[in-house]
Amino acid sequence: MNPDFPIWLRASHLINFVLIGMLLRSGWEILSSLPRLWWSNDSAPGKEWLKFTKRELPKEEGVYTSLMDEKSLHPLLALPGRENIGLGRHWHGLAASLWLLNGLVYVVLLFATGLWRRIIPTSWEVFPDAWDSLLVYLSFRTPGIEHFTPYDSLQMLGYTFVVFILAPSMVLTGLGMSPAIRSRFPWYVKALGGHQGARSLHFIAMVLMAGFIVMHVGLVFLVHRENNLVHMVFGDVDTARAGQALFIVVITIVLVLLFWFFLSYWSLADRVRAHKFLVNATEPVRKGVFGWMRPRGSTQNVYTEKDISGFHWTNGLPPTAEESQEWLDARDSGDWHGWTITIGDDINGTEKVLTLDDLRKLPKHEYIATHTCMQGWSATSKWAGVKLKDLMPLLGPRPEGANYIMIDSYGLAQKMYDNRPREPFYAVVDMDMYNEDDTVLAYERNGKPLELHLGAPARLRVESNHGYKMVKWVKSIRWIKDYADYGDGRGGTREDSALQAFNGRI
Prior knowledge:
Elements: H1 7-33, E1 36-37, E2 50-51, H2 85-112, H3 126-138, H4 153-175, H5 179-184, H6 186-191, H7 194-222, H8 225-234, H9 242-269, H10 271-290, H11 325-333, E3 340-345, E4 350-355, H12 356-360, E5 365-372, E6 378-387, H13 388-391, E7 404-412, E8 424-430, H14 431-434, E9 439-445, E10 448-449, E11 459-462, E12 474-480, H15 493-498
Parallel strand pairs: 3-12
Antiparallel strand pairs: 1-2, 3-4, 5-6, 6-9, 7-8, 7-12, 9-10, 9-11
Helix pairs in contact: 1-2, 2-10, 3-4, 4-7, 7-8, 8-9, 9-10
């Protein structure tokens, strides 16, 4: 047996192959939801440095929603495909968690067994030797087998880069797109170039990783194939078993491909079943890793008014006459005369009706924060309004048995995943979100009354979460016992209509 290829190393290599494929395919599903990449944090039209669509964006705000930009990928390419970003994000989170765990086990065992010397150079001679190897490859020749002990210098540098630089960069830039981290540690996200910088760097790392995989797999079959295959399959040095190893490798690759495709079609066959499984599998990580983080928009000094975006995307259009004539009448009245918001208690049946003037009389909370949509766009604004925990006490003490706050909109959902008629938009927040200082009913943005397309006259802000929790055109805010009793029982319209997670912290 070859001591350079123990069973744990070969097993982690195979697991990594399975998981990296899931990561890439679910990542493509996420990217297809908003097939544009920016460096500027306001995601403005015309500022993309790369796009995968021929659609041209209008310069005017509020006429083109991000859902209109979504593209559909085939299930053989994406996980799961067919405009299912909610499930795609769940698969990405699950695969990322398992991939990180597998990588940590690999690195720990690599150093514990001393096998780190296989891939980490210990001499400066590795660089000239790697250059010589590169020249051999560029001349379409193969380095002699004596250079592989077990890897040649060029391979060592490549593996060191992938394991200790590229893979960690994918983790760090991925974390930079988390609302929980952005609202708690804004300096970290800004160091990456903001949300769009993190997103673009993550994409570049993905391209490098995909390129490495293609090159790596290709060289396995093109350069000393017999030795490579028996190393990978048997941990052996006897090339007499190369034929057997080749058969096993080919069958394994086919089975992994079929597994990837199975995940897509299994998800699409019953999306509710897939959602339930994936949320249960990923929620412990969301809660354990990100649940303790609390936003600090009003105390941070990383983002200032100089960072305020010149453009703000939207998802959803203002209510129409079919959706709410009441909202339209208030809009046309001047300064929202006649507009009301109801705070209530579904447990005891009490409620209180407030006007915009009533909201303005309450303590005003103001801060600068970056809004991120689960599709990928972002914008930095200065928000002002009343904290939810200052608003709801107007109704009296928290009712016994009240575990959640439900926020309803005058508007409807953009579309339902199962194509049923659009339903009133709502979201539910738990007590942790409710008690955060930056969970606000906002009525101003950048020192001016809130714009129509961004939720005027008042919208919810939950800075620790993605934008799908932040209801626009708010109609009512109510104490409830359990969100399972409302809608499809998943805690919000985007959870119901797009199969997102109730916990929107990442």
